[in-house]
């Protein structure tokens, strides 16, 4: 098994860059993207194993990104990040094919565990 | 425990409308309505009765009173005519003849004969000189030489010129009337008096000539109420009339009365002009009149009964109507307040959700930055104070965790507005609610004892609504206890279908009277601060969720609220 290719999508660059760096420190090949369209384009060039996508984004929202990824890259797992209390979107996302959803702010260990689950599931 | 929940969301404006003012205005309205309806119904009825009475009077007048009046009028005239003729005749003789002529016994006898022939009705005729001595006399009795100087009538005739007596027996021993006339004279010594007697049999004959019906009665009484002719019912001549004389009138008048024998009678009467007599006709009330009387009585009775029934009906109906109005007004108020309350909760919920979302993003950034700091620290070699930096980043991460709990709670509150049936654990809800109240408990040193069943079934119910229910009840328990008080909360499996939660406090307790009202909207013991809605909303929610609330309380010992909730929600099973 090589390095896991992970793409993080969130309009808040402070958040997404930091989280990407932390994942890289833990051995993932993590890219941070702050725009839905850009994320889709980059994903097509270099399909990631796993995408972690924020639901609430200006422009292309997380659920829309999920739908398109599921169409073009059926092997890519998607974990959604939602605001607290946005259980509805999370459930909707799982119906659309997301692996799971987590609420922000997320504990790093909880996230890593969930990522492993998803990647193993995708194997 | 005061029967009033008051959390921070309840609107206090209802306390500005004191209950007694409302009830006073309802009372006023009720009184006005009763008055108005009575004014609209009773006067026409009264008017009808009065008209009927008037009709009765008219009928009475045309059927009975007028005939009596005309009969009396006729008899009065013939009576007066008779007496005027007699007294004129005596006056004429006293003027036309001289003393000397009349002092002649034969001449007097001749004059008496002429009087009898021309007028009739005289018994005798006598001449009395100035000293009251009977000078001459024509008649059947031996009255010659009689002295009248001491008799009151003699003095009266000397003063007035004419005298007509009451009926009396006198020397003659049979009822008669005297007409005495004084001769015109300059001085007392020249005066003389002519005196004639009339047999009252003439009176009786005149009365008989009235042609009364067999049950009628007619008679003459003098001004002292002594019978001057015999009466069929009320005594013989000179007996006193057994009932009081009506006030004098000179036109025939008829009154209804009951006589001394207890009969209902019509009495027609009139005083006779220039004579000291009253002519009276008494008739028993005819059958026609009796039926009229019955109708009159019935009408009065029916009218009074109708008055009573109308008043009773109006009062009762109005009261009933007012009760309905009051009830629906209360329901409307209740609905309005519940709506207002819900709207307030909803807007606070939206605000809370907005705040939570806004805070969440920076919180996530802090979380990641601090996390990265910690990662960097962990991946770098030891350096001075490394462990201190680690502690600091941990502290930041812990604070983020706490903030996260707060935003969760805020969003949890916001979600309460949506009715949302889910599988939930009652114990968790109680812990959440206590989370809201733990600060107050801490400050007031209230001891909370939890006795929650570990293997309590999950139930299908609404998370937010149940939070509201327990928040209200526990809040009330807090309000009931003094600082340092004790609140015991326990949960258990009631039966296969229900779970139960009880909240017991050792507060002031409630009277039975208070307990009867606690679930009624607008009932509050927190004067000035309560809306009286908390427990009624609580009750409504529990009922809606298919459960029920029991209350036990004792003044001075405390109160226990027990909430029973079904494990399966009706809507979900359907």
What is the chain-wise order of helices and strands of chain A?
EHEHEHEHEH
Bin the helical content of chain B: 40-55%
Overall geometric form of chain B: rod-shaped
Radius of gyration of chain B: 56 Å
As a percent range, the share of helical residues of chain A equals 40-55%
Q: What's the β-strand tally of chain A? A: 5
Mean pLDDT of chain B equals 83
Q: What is the subunit organization of this protein? A: heterodimer
Give an overview in words.
- The complex is a heterodimer of chains A (123) and B (574).
- Chain A is α/β, with parallel strands linked by helices and 123 residues long.
- Chain A has 5 helices and 5 strands.
- Chain A has helices at 13-25, 36-45, 62-72, 87-95, 108-122; strands at residues 5-9, 29-33, 50-54, 77-82, 100-103.
- In chain A, helix 2 (36-45) packs parallel to helix 3.
- Chain B has 574 residues and is an alpha+beta fold.
- Helix content of chain B is 51%, strand content 18%.
- Chain B has helices at 19-96, 99-102, 105-118, 152-160, 201-208, 287-379, 386-415, 426-444, 463-480, 512-517, 534-544, 570-573, and strands at residues 122-128, 134-138, 162-164, 176-182, 193-199, 217-222, 253-258, 264-271, 277-284, 421-424, 447-452, 459-462, 486-493, 498-505, 548-554, 558-566.
- In chain B, strand 13 (486-493) and strand 14 (498-505) form a beta hairpin.
- Classes of the chains: A alpha/beta (123), B alpha+beta (574).
- At the A-B interface, helix 1 of A face helix 6 and helix 7 of B.
């Amino acid at each position: 098994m090589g390095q896991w290719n992970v793409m993080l999508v969130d309009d808040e660059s402070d958040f997404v860059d930091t989280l990407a760096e932390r994942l890289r420190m833990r051995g993932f090949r993590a890219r941070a993207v702050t725009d839905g369209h850009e994320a889709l384009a980059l994903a097509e060039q270099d399909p990631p194993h796993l995408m972690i996508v924020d639901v609430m984004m200006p422009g292309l929202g997380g659920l829309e990104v999920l739908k398109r990824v599921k169409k073009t890259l059926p092997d890519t797992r998607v974990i959604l990040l939602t605001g607290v209390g946005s259980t509805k979107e999370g459930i909707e996302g799982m119906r659309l094919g997301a692996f799971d959803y987590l609420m922000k702010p997320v504990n790093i260990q909880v996230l890593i565990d969930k990522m492993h689950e998803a990647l193993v599931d995708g194997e | 425990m005061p029967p009033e929940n008051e959390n921070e969301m309840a609107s206090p404006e209802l306390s500005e409308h004191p209950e007694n003012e409302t009830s006073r205005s309802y009372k006023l309205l009720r009184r006005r309505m009763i008055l108005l309806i009575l004014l609209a119904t009773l006067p026409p009825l009264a008017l009808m009765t009065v008209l009927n009475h008037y009709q009765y009077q008219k009928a009475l007048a045309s059927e009975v009173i007028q005939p009596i009046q005309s009969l009396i009028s006729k008899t009065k005239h013939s009576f007066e005519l008779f007496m005027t003729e007699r007294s004129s005749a005596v006056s004429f003789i006293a003027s036309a003849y001289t003393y000397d002529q009349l002092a002649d016994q034969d001449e007097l006898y001749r004059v008496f004969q002429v009087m009898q022939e021309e007028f009739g009705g005289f018994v005798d005729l006598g001449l009395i000189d100035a000293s009251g001595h009977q000078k001459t006399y024509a008649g059947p009795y031996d009255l010659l030489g009689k002295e009248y100087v001491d008799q009151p009538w003699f003095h009266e005739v000397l003063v007035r010129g004419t005298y007509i007596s009451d009926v009396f027996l006198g020397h003659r021993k049979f009822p008669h009337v005297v007409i005495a006339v004084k001769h015109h004279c300059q001085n007392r010594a020249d005066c003389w008096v002519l005196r004639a007697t009339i047999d009252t049999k003439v009176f009786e004959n005149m009365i008989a000539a009235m042609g009364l019906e067999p049950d009628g009665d007619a008679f003459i009484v003098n001004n002292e109420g002594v019978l001057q002719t015999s009466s069929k019912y009320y005594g013989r001549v000179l007996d006193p009339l057994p009932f009081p004389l009506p006030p004098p009138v000179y036109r025939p008048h008829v009154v209804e009365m009951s006589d001394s024998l207890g009969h209902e009678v019509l009495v027609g009467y009139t005083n006779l002009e220039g004579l000291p007599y009253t002519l009276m006709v008494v008739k028993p009330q005819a059958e026609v009149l009796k039926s009229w009387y019955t109708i009159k009585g019935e009408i009065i009775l029916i009218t009074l009964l109708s008055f009573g029934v109308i008043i009773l009906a109006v009062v009762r109906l109005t009261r009933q109507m007012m009760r309905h109005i009051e009830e629906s007004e209360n329901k409307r108020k209740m609905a309005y307040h519940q709506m207002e309350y819900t709207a307030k909760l909803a807007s606070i919920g939206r605000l809370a959700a907005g705040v939570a979302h806004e805070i969440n993003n920076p919180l996530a950034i802090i979380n990641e930055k601090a996390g990265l700091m910690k990662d960097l620290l962990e991946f770098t070699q030891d350096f001075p104070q490394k462990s201190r930096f680690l502690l600091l980043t941990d502290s930041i991460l812990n604070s983020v965790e706490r903030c996260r709990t707060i935003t969760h709670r805020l969003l949890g509150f916001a979600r309460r507005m949506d009715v949302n049936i889910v599988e939930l654990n009652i114990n968790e809800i109680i812990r959440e609610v206590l989370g809201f109240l733990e600060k107050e408990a801490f400050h007031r040193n209230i001891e909370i004892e939890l006795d929650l069943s570990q293997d309590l079934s999950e139930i299908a119910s609404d998370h937010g609504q149940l939070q509201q229910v327990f928040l209200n009840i526990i809040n009330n328990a807090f309000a009931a206890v003094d600082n340092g008080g004790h609140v015991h909360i326990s949960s258990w499996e009631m039966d296969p279908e229900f779970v139960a939660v009880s909240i017991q406090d050792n507060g002031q307790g409630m009277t039975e009277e208070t307990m009867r009202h606690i679930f009624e909207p607008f009932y509050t013991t927190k004067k000035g601060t309560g809306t009286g809605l908390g427990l009624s909303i609580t009750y409504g929610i529990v009922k809606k969720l298919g459960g029920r609330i029991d209350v036990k309380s004792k003044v001075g010992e405390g109160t226990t609220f027990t909430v029973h909730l079904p494990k399966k929600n009706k809507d979900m099973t359907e």
